[in-house]
């Protein structure tokens, strides 16, 4: 502070700021000073200060620095959820396969599957095979289509190929007398 010896009046503290002596009195203030009447230099106040600009730059840098790791975090989270679902599916499949393995350890289950899948019969039983609608169209013993379409027993086809190789004319009805014309289901040994 300046002392009174220097020639200036002592400053008084008041709620109303004092007007400068070199400023023009009255309403000649500029519109940009906000009408505060501070009497300071006519500077247009900026909305952002240097501190605010630095703060904004720091915030932008933080957002840019964290954007990629956050994106990776969320994408890896979804991958983890997907892998957990696949793991649960595989565990269910393993438990189902273990259950099938336990069934195959049972001899009765093996016998049932051999009968169903391989058409096995026990000794003394007669094996029967029922023809469905798809089997009747291919020719079978139901009488709708006969062996005249070229489907005959394997031994007849074998005998016809042997007679064709020797030069004798093939006949569909001629079969060697040593080969049986009908095969019993129990004679197959199953």
Give an overview of the whole structure.
This protein is mostly helical. It has helices at residues 50-104, 107-118, 133-137, 154-166. It is rod-shaped.
Essential attributes:
single chain; 190 residues; mainly alpha; 4 helices; rod-shaped
Tell me the span between the first and last alpha carbons: 124 Å
User: How much is the average pLDDT?
Assistant: 74
Rg over C-alpha atoms, rounded to the nearest angstrom: 53 Å
Element string (H = helix, E = strand):
HHHH
Cα shape: rod-shaped
User: What structural category characterises the helix and strand content?
Assistant: mainly alpha
Strand runs, count: 0
Major β-sheet annotation: none
Spans of at least 5 consecutive residues with low confidence: 140-148, 178-190
> What helical percentage do the residues reach?
40-55%
In terms of DSSP E residues, the strand content is under 5%
Number of helices: 4
What does the secondary structure layout of this molecule look like, with pairings?
Blueprint: H1 50-104, H2 107-118, H3 133-137, H4 154-166
In brief, what are we looking at here?
This protein is mostly helical. The chain has four helices and no strands.
